[in-house]
């Protein structure tokens, strides 16, 4: 029956349970990501290609 529904009209629903431990892991990585981003922008402004 699904094939009878136009692809543009099909909807898929996925339920994701909230997991505070995973959210905390993401928050823990934020400073590292910010540092990496700052380093890339600094190298870019100096004309150095990132590895």
Ends distance: 50 Å
Q: Indicate the overall shape.
A: elongated
Report the order of strands and helices.
H
Strand content: under 5%
Percent helix, as a range, is 40-55%
Tally of individual helices = 1
Rg calc: 21 Å
Kindly state the mean pLDDT as a whole number? Answer: 90
User: Assembly type of the shown chains?
Assistant: single chain
Compute the number of strand runs.
Answer: 0
Helix and strand content put the structural class at mainly alpha
Largest sheet at a glance? none
Please mark out the parts with pLDDT under 50 across 5 or more consecutive residues, or reply none: none
If you had to describe this structure to a student in words, what would you say it looks like?
- There is one protein chain.
- The chain has 51 residues and is mostly helical.
- It has a domain at 19-51.
- 53% of the residues lie in helices and 0% in strands.
- The termini are far apart.
- The model has no long low-confidence stretch (mean pLDDT 90).
């Amino acid at each position: 029956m699904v094939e009878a529904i136009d692809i543009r009209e099909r909807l898929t629903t996925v339920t994701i349970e909230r997991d505070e431990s995973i959210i905390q892991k993401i928050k823990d990585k934020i400073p590292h990501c910010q540092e990496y981003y700052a380093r890339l922008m600094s190298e870019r402004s100096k004309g150095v290609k990132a590895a």
